[in-house]
Design goal:
Length: 433
């Protein structure tokens, strides 16, 4: 403590890390000692080269996803990230819900395999239309659900139609499952139905993955008329649509009803995630599917992961049925509106030439950079200048139409921080353009 001028808490945390790494051992009642070094086998360093041969080239590219999940460095402003800033997360309500859930005698037991019935019923009510509790499968978060659904619907090597741009975690999951994402361009109102029909005809694909509501990264919402057109195109192709409804609880203006509520014939496989409106570790989502595909998805989840922890399902149920839940949604909506407006105002002030979207929900704006700017290099330079933003390129399954940036308004601590982040970004951009 004296040598490093740190508190006892810091020292004991450091010792905890060293113990976890096996560098020190603690002997209760005696003290903490430097661990014995593992004896090298016959005095040589380990040789892992054989693994490269055994594993072959089937790598999993987690780079983009890791970037989204890594917290910003100390002092940097987060204009990127997938979750609410902790000040907007319902942490107290979650603590209460978890305590109540953990007290239930069956909290650590096996849940029914499709999920806790009351939680399935809650999701069915939340989605509306004629979604029934028996259509709902509880799953371990949106990403997990997405992987399960993709693997259940398509064999390795199959083409998967996606909006372009799209959520980079969906591209990563599709590629890890051996699928080939095929881009279908969007305009300000979401995917273009004519091009979607062409893409089905050209590829023979059986599945279209999309986010019709508060699309990540652009914030676009598919209007009612286009929803009908997209469903008609999908019907004509004899295909499924995966509706990733990740941001339903991040509405600034009311969100249109989900595609699945208009679907009678089991065309739509819907994924509803809870993390975005709550906290990253509320890893519970619902998959809604009807017909034989529902059985295929259930079987895939069961074989891969059995079921999500009952204690977490019960915690989610406690939270969602508590009187504070509607109030929380209203607070989040009002805070997101203020933050979106603050970010737009800062952009109008410091980067008036940069066209940006004005989303009515979700967490992100999508900005068009001047032609010729390298968005990936800009993102790296911005980080060095203390602001974390997301380059547009990784959100495109193929060549991007030009340089773009995703700017997030949900993850920064305050509106003042959003403004400071844009100031730093504008300075970096002014040196490049
Ligand atoms: C569009 C979209 N879908 C799914 C997810 C996965 O979220 P989670 O696994 O936390 O539910 C994300 C996370 O950023 C997302 O942006």
């Amino acid at each position: 403590m004296e040598r490093h001028r740190v508190s006892p808490v810091t020292v004991s945390r450091a010792l905890g890390v060293l113990a976890a790494e096996g560098l020190v051992v603690t002997r209760p009642g005696s003290g903490t000692y430097v661990a014995d070094r593992r004896p090298a086998v016959a005095g040589r360093a380990p040789d892992f080269d054989w693994q490269s041969v055994a594993l072959g080239d089937r790598t999993v590219d987690a780079g983009g996803v890791r970037g989204l999940l890594t917290p910003p460095p100390e002092g940097a402003v987060a204009l990127s990230g997938g979750y609410l800033h902790p000040s907007l997360q319902p942490l107290r309500a979650l603590a209460t819900a978890a305590t109540r859930a953990a007290r239930r005698p069956d909290a650590w037991g096996r849940p029914p395999l499709s999920g806790v019935p009351e939680l399935r019923a809650w999701f069915a009510r939340d989605l509306g239309g004629d979604v029934s509790p028996s259509d709902v499968l509880i799953s371990g978060g949106g990403q997990d659900a997405l992987t399960t659904v993709l693997r259940a619907l398509l064999p390795p090597g199959a083409p998967l139609l996606v909006e372009s741009p799209t959520y980079l975690g969906a591209l990563a999951a599709a590629r890890a499952a051996g699928l080939h994402p095929v881009p279908v361009p969007m305009d300000g109102d979401g995917v273009r139905p004519g091009l979607l029909a062409e893409a089905f005809a050209m590829t023979g694909s059986r599945v279209f993955y999309c986010q019709p509501t508060f699309h990540n990264p652009t914030g676009a919402v598919l209007p009612a008329e286009r929803r009908e057109q997209v469903l008609a195109v999908v019907r004509a192709a004899g295909a499924f649509v995966i509706e990733d409804d990740y941001a339903r609880h991040l509405a600034i203006d009311p969100a249109p009803g989900p595609l699945v509520a208009r679907d009678q014939d089991g065309r739509v496989v819907h994924i509803a995630s809870l993390t975005k409106g709550t906290a990253p570790s509320m890893r519970i989502a619902a998959v809604v599917a009807r017909g034989p595909v529902a059985e295929r998805i259930r079987a895939t989840q069961m074989v891969d992961a059995f079921f999500p922890a009952r204690s977490l399902q019960e915690t989610a149920l406690e939270l969602l049925t508590s009187p504070g839940w509607p109030r929380h949604l209203r607070l989040v909506s009002a805070a997101l509106r203020r933050r979106r407006d603050a970010l737009l105002a800062a952009l109008a002030r410091d980067l008036p030439e940069t066209p940006v979207t004005r989303p009515t929900g979700g967490a992100h704006l999508w900005a068009r950079l001047p032609a010729g700017v390298d968005d990936v290099a800009l993102t790296e330079a911005a980080l060095r200048a203390g602001v974390l933003v997301s380059a547009g390129r990784p959100f495109y399954p193929a060549e991007p139409p030009g340089p773009r940036l995703r700017l997030t308004y949900s993850a920064a601590a305050t509106e003042a921080e959003l403004s400071e982040g844009v100031r730093r970004l504008a300075q970096v951009l002014s040196k490049i353009v």
